[in-house]
Amino acid sequence: MKEPQTAAFPATKIAPFLRAVVDPEGKGDLTPEQAAAIQQVEANVARSDRRR
Amino acid sequence: MSLGASGQFDRLLREIREARTQLPVEHRNLLAQIGTHEGVVEDWPTGVQDLFRSVQEVPPSDAALVNAAAVWLDGLRTVVFNGPLMLAAITGLTDTSRKQLVAYIAWHEYGHALSLTRSTLEQRRSGVHLLGLLSDGMRASIDYPGGYGRLQVFDEIVATVYALLISRIRTDGYGIPEFLHPEIVQAFKEVIPWPPSQ
């Protein structure tokens, strides 16, 4: 039987996606708070990935 | 006061739904017409697979779900968020940052829902070409080549641009940033009404 159509958002792309929203041109146009928050998310996802 | 596990999932779902209420009325109406639902699944991936079994349909495989933060389930018209993974991802954030980042992810998923249900095969065929026209930062967020097939790239681009534009409404209104290539803008507007009429 055919598997249903799904579209997944991979966990490893959360941080790159968040950077794309706050700094789409990659010029460093994000606030220190935004940068710290995204780094935290990136570290959290990596930690979570190692546990799985 | 700290919330228990179930309370944390409930809070996450509230934040996602609040992000939906912040979308332009026209887009909320389109999502409603599509019949879009959202949910936070606590028992991932089994909980997602159980949704399919509950309506007597073949569930997606573990492989299709295991590394996902969120998944659009086309047949069920539902976007489901991986509750444990999302909560792990936002651990340690301030309330303000958490709310903002959850909203960005939710807007991406709602943009995805709009694109997947409104784009044509012809438009999807243009995805890889359009990917080359994105800024480096935006292109890096799309898992191609890798996680996505050629025909999935278009919807990823629309979803990413959608989250970007929604995030800028408060500061820039419905303006289109100059760094977005005209072909990207045209393709986006063919799928999602922009500026929205209401």
Task: Report on the architecture of this protein.
The complex is a heterodimer of chains A (52) and B (198). With 52 residues, chain A is mostly helical. Chain A is built from two helices and one strand. Chain A starts with 5 loop residues before the first strand and ends with a helix. Chain B has two domains: 1-92, no CATH class; 119-198, no CATH class. Helix content of chain B is 58%, strand content 8%. Chain B has helices spanning 5-21, 25-34, 46-54, 62-65, 83-89, 95-118, 121-125, 127-131, 136-139, 153-167, 169-172, 182-191, and strands at residues 37-41, 68-73, 78-82. Chain B has a three-stranded mixed β-sheet.
- How many individual domains of chain B? 2
Average predicted local confidence, pLDDT of chain B? 93
Shape of chain B: globular
Strand content of chain B: 5-15%
Order of helices and strands of chain B: HHEHHEEHHHHHHHH
Which range does the strand content of chain A fall in?
A: 5-15%
Q: Could you list the spans of chain A in which at least 5 consecutive residues all have pLDDT below 50?
A: none
**Major sheet of chain A, described briefly?**
none
Greatest interface and its participating residue counts: A-B, 37 and 53 residues
* SS element count, helices of chain B: 12
Number of separate helices of chain A:
2
Radius of gyration of chain B: 17 Å
- Classify the oligomer: heterodimer
Query: Biggest sheet of chain B: strands, sense, closure?
Result: 3 strands, mixed
Structural class of chain A: mainly alpha
Which regions of chain B have little confidence, pLDDT < 50, spanning 5+ residues? none
The side-by-side strand order for the widest beta sheet of chain B comes to 1-3-2
Based on secondary structure, the structural category of chain B is mainly alpha
